[in-house]
Amino acid sequence: MRIRDADKEKLVIEMAxxxxxxxxxxxxxxxxxxxxxxxxxxxxxxxxxxxxxLIQKIGxxxxxxxxxxxxxxxxxxxxxxxxLWKQWENRAAFTMKxxxxxxxxxxxxxxxxxxxxxxxxxxxxxxxxTMTEFMENGLRNKELVPMTFEAFWSVAYGPLxxxxxxxxxxxxxxxxPFKLTKEIMKEAFSxxxxxxxx
Amino acid sequence: MExxxxxxxxxxxxxxxxxxxxxxxxxxxSDSNIQQWSIDCEDVDCVLRVxxxxxxxxxxxxxxxxxxxxxxELN
Lengths: 198, 75
Description:
The complex is a heterodimer of chains A (198) and B (75).
Chain A: H1 6-27, H2 30-36, H3 41-47, H4 51-70, H5 80-97, H6 99-109, H7 113-120, H8 122-140, H9 149-169, H10 182-194
Chain B: E1 8-13, H1 23-30, E2 36-40, E3 47-51, H2 57-66, E4 71-73
Antiparallel strand pairs in B: 1-3, 1-4, 2-3
């Protein structure tokens, strides 16, 4: 009689993310994963049809976790400045708490799995709707300058992701040790918002 | 609905590739006792995964052997 073992499932997800971040999709295999988790390959195949199925299922779990935490205590009704700061806080908190998941998500984003994963998450459509609504409210309330979406995105989030990359690496230019603090984040945000408001 | 874990059968095989038009595929596809099946030809064990509430592992092994392939249950 087979019973679902939640702890084992959690371990499989954790180890799969670990291995994919370390070795990439090419170097990753179901056999290696099973060994790392001290389970039989057969057990792994109970839950996943093949390597692609596993990558897509774990990708969907990770993406959902990310989108959920991004909209925590956030509302599209917030003023543009307040809402964007909440987005910065939430995205930074997630990246700092789950650096491996973020690295995994980055690998997935640039792979053919990305579309399949996003299409499989019902909540992704809600997330996109919330973020569009937030931008439209900002435009309507004249709190945001109209611009091409990609230009908007790069200005609104570019500085944050640059700082987060430095934080994840633990060093800045010239190898100087770096740790992102709320003060530094606020400093960058205060200049960013000036580039977005009319 | 979630699949009953006890209805999932996993086998190690020597099926390195599976032609879309081959007889084995047709047989597995048309068997009403099989709800779902797949082979991971990229894996070293060429793992066959069959979902069936009815068929016992031995019956599935017999079916695969009939097509000239090795098949062994993975536990």
